[in-house]
Amino acid sequence: MLNRKDLFALGFMIFALFFGAGNLIFPPELGALAGTQFLPAMLGFIVTGVGLPLAGLIAVAWVGGGISTLSNPLPKAVGAFLTFALYVAIGPFFGIPRTSVVTYELGVVPFLGEPSQTTLIISSLLFFLATVFLVLRPGKLLDIIGRFITPLLLTALMILSISSIVNPLSAVEAPAPAYNSFTNSFVQGFLQGYLTLDALGALVFGVIVLHTLHTRGIKDRTAQLKNVTKAGLIAAVSLTVVYTGLGFIGRNSFGAVGSVSGPDLLQQYADSTFGTVGLVILGTAILLACLTTSVGLVTAFSEYLISLFKRLSFPVASITTAVLGFAISIFGLQTLLSIAVPVLMFLYPIVIVLIVLTFIRSAIKKPAIVYGATLFVTALLSLLSSLMSLKALPAFASSMYKAFPLVDQNMAWLLPAIATFIISSWIGHVSHNSISQKRAG
To answer: Which of 45, 72, 119, 422 is 20 to 30 Å apart from 56, CA to CA?
Structure first.
């Protein structure tokens, strides 16, 4: 078992891996929209924005591997496809370049005045050089991120958050129409946490955490699970505190800023309260948040490449991944979002179902039947949702899809998946009992 000092360092490392730029922006927006209904909105956000990633992290430790291990009951080709799609989507296709672009747009542009392609390229180049420098020290990730970078990040965030409580820019406004009651506000926060897509990252970062424990001599599965659970709870508490603090910035600034945009709320609050120093503090927080996430994603994708191409060395894989991330990052954030978000929204429900099934796998009589049927239905409805967001769904199919419950919340898959799980579990149970009776006879 890790000692207390190392356990907290691991927890802070997990926090830093999860806490990227999107996590920095969502809570202020939520605070601005929720206003006087801030508490239930933040509670809903924490349930899905913190709870789901924590569950994913523990699921990885539970089975001792990432998505390829979680999907073992499925045909190998399906598991391989899901693994490939996840790593490419949150790796060089979207997740890695987004960290660089957001750092540029939120941390660099405020000091430049006007963005340009040249400054974007220079910023991205420097960002990925820093990423590779940290990635090529895999044995020191716990020390570099857990003991050094995360405390700096937390300090910067706490300065901004505490000052917004002590010195609010405006009185708390009435909630937006969608947040006008405790229940509605909770549901909206729940959906915002769901849309962070951090459960995808949990399956990738969980593998990094297991590797970190392995390098520390902790190889026993039970010991790994205990350490991951404890460190994950430390990260979860840290995320909860930081999200709440950032939410207060939006809640206490919206009346003065007049915008619910996370970047606008953060930048104007930092500038109004601290001036240039505030923008430096905010820029530092954004850089550190994006850099730690980039390090985690590049490390994870590099290890995935090595699993596919055995002769590939880790330095070559890391540099290749960073170069791909750099090349895609120069297209800008809006281009990345328009292409990648539908893909991520297709994968996210599948990952959630995999995580849930992992914890109850031992109680399922016929895992192949239950996994196959439940994930097929989930994937089908998720695909329809993605095609609809791209406006690529024919009119008749769109009308049929809109008839499903929770379609407006991007969760049309939920109730059909639950129904399919119940039916397929019953079929598996009957089949199992029938086979047992024949053997007994």
So the answer is: 422
Q: Can you give the three-state secondary structure of 338-400, one letter per residue?
A: HHHHHHHHHHHHHHHHHHHHHHHHHHCCCHHHHHHHHHHHHHHHHHHHHHHHCCCCCHHHHHH
Tokens of 411: 């969760």
Which residues in the chain land under pLDDT 50?
Answer: none
Between CA 45 and CA 53 the distance in angstroms is 12
Residue 2, token pair as written in the block: 């890790």
pLDDT at residue number 33: 95
Q: Which domains does the chain have, with CATH numbers?
A: 4-330 (1.20.1740.10), 334-441 (no CATH)
Give the pLDDT score at 88.
87
pLDDT tens-digit readout, 63-75: 988 888 898 888 9
Residue 277: phi and psi, rounded to 5, are -60, -40
CB 158 within 8 Å of CB 249: no
Distance CA 133, CA 221 (A): 31
Q: What is the phi-psi region of residue 23: left when phi exceeds 0, alpha when psi lies from -120 to 50, beta otherwise? A: alpha
Contact 164, 248 (CB under 8 A): yes
Count Cβ atoms within 10 A of the Cβ of residue 118 and give its class: 0-12 exposed, 13-18 middle, 19 or more buried: exposed
- Give helix 21-34 / helix 276-308 axis angle, nearest 10°: 130
Distance CA 247, CA 224 (A): 33
| Alpha-carbon gap, residue 215 to 128, rounded angstroms | 25
From residue 385, give the alpha-carbon distance in Å to each of 247, 352, 408.
29, 16, 10
Interatomic CA distance for residues 303 and 340, integer angstroms: 22
Distance CA(224)–CA(20), nearest Å, equals 25
